[in-house]
Amino acid sequence: MAMTMHSTTSSTTHVTKDYLPALARLLMCGLFIWDGVLQLRDPAGTVRYFTSLNIPSPQIAVWVSIAVHLLGGIGILVGFMTRWAAALLVLLCLGTAFGIHLPAGDMENMMHFYKNLVMAGGLLYVIAYGPGAFAFDKS
């Protein structure tokens, strides 16, 4: 009986360590890829939005933002250079949280602030534990 329980626990641990990180990557990458595609579809609109936020050099920042969102999101999705992609996206999330979404008293901005902190936390787990299964990287 103890042998059966050990076998079940071992296979559950294997599934948890391999497949849940892959599912987490899939869930996390969508936000970044979608935002990158939206920015790419209307870079002039994104430049106007960046200008309204007083982001320096918005004509350059838009292309940096598109590259970071798409390359980071796709890297997380396919598990290629996963830890580096996650580190890049952590910087994006924290920079956006503290640089854009921190104004006190604005409840919508505070929601985005905490969303960015939560995403950064999830990405830190990717950095710490690796991509899991279905990735180009080796854990």
Task: Please state the average pLDDT score.
Answer: 89
Estimated radius of gyration = 18 Å
Helix content: over 70%
The number of E-state strands comes to: 0
Strand residue percentage: under 5%
Instruction: Count every helix, treating DSSP H or I runs of 4 or more residues as helices.
Output: 5
Query: How is the biggest beta sheet arranged?
Result: none
Stretches with pLDDT under 50, minimum 5 residues: none
Report the span from N to C terminus.
33 Å
Kindly give the count of domains: 1
- Please state the overall shape, judged from the principal axes of the Cα atoms: globular
Helices and strands, in order, run as HHHHH
Protein structure class = mainly alpha
Give an overview in words.
- The protein has 139 residues and is mostly helical.
- The protein is 81% helix and 0% strand.
- The chain has five helices and no strands.
- α2 packs across α3.
- The model has no long low-confidence stretch (mean pLDDT 89).
Descriptive key words:
mainly alpha; 139 residues
Summarize the structure.
81% of the residues lie in helices and 0% in strands. The chain is mainly alpha-helical and 139 residues long.
List the helices and strands and how they pair.
Elements: H1 2-41, H2 43-52, H3 58-78, H4 82-99, H5 107-129
